Amino acid sequence: MRRAVCPGSFDPVTNGHLDIIGRASRLFDEVIIGVLINQSKTGLFTIDERIEMLGEATAQYSNVRVASFHGLLVDFCRDQGAAVVVKGLRAVSDFDYELQMAQMNIGLSGVETLFMPTNPLYSFLSSSLVKDVVKWGGDASSYLPDNVLARLVGRLKQN
């Protein structure tokens, strides 16, 4: 079985993330969305909330599942039986950082990295950016799944 991991913090998941996940789902038998638990950062959404939103947003893909992890990505890949990491690249600046990570991952464990260029519609998009847009009352509806937008608006109204 060809299995891949799409890792990230997904705080929150955007349509840019979903574009990469959907494209990966056509290339691999199974795609595992790996939600990173970073204990040194406090996210807007809890890990459980992110997993729930991702599950709802990817329900149309029968070969996609969501799991959380902490520690090294290569250890998560080994535990999941995945030999490939799929990463989206928005710009050249992403490539510089991601190439170093990919080289470290293959050196540590032989896990390959597949870089996918982001759809130009989402090349500027980040979770941080959409949080700022929504925080200041902007319309982020074309950048987030409906379920995520509703939760984001609700969360930011609380803060």
UniProtKB/TrEMBL annotation:
It catalyses: (R)-4'-phosphopantetheine + ATP + H(+) = 3'-dephospho-CoA + diphosphate. It is found in: Cytoplasm. The record marks H17 as: Transition state stabilizer. ATP binds at S9, F10, H17, G88, L89, R90, E98, Y122, S123, F124, L125, S126, S127, S128. Residues 5-131 form the Cytidyltransferase-like domain. Pathway: Cofactor biosynthesis; coenzyme A biosynthesis; CoA from (R)-pantothenate: step 4/5. Keywords: ATP-binding, Coenzyme A biosynthesis, Cytoplasm, Magnesium, Nucleotide-binding, Nucleotidyltransferase, Transferase. One of its GO terms (biological process) is coenzyme A biosynthetic process. It comes from the Bacteria. Its cofactor is Mg(2+). One of its GO terms (molecular function) is pantetheine-phosphate adenylyltransferase activity. Substrate binds at S9, K41, L73, K87. Its EC number is 2.7.7.3. InterPro entries: Cyt_trans-like, PPAT, Rossmann-like_a/b/a_fold. GO terms for cellular component: cytoplasm. NCBIfam families: coaD_prev_kdtB, cyt_tran_rel. Homohexamer. Belongs to the bacterial CoaD family. Reversibly transfers an adenylyl group from ATP to 4'-phosphopantetheine, yielding dephospho-CoA (dPCoA) and pyrophosphate. This is Phosphopantetheine adenylyltransferase.
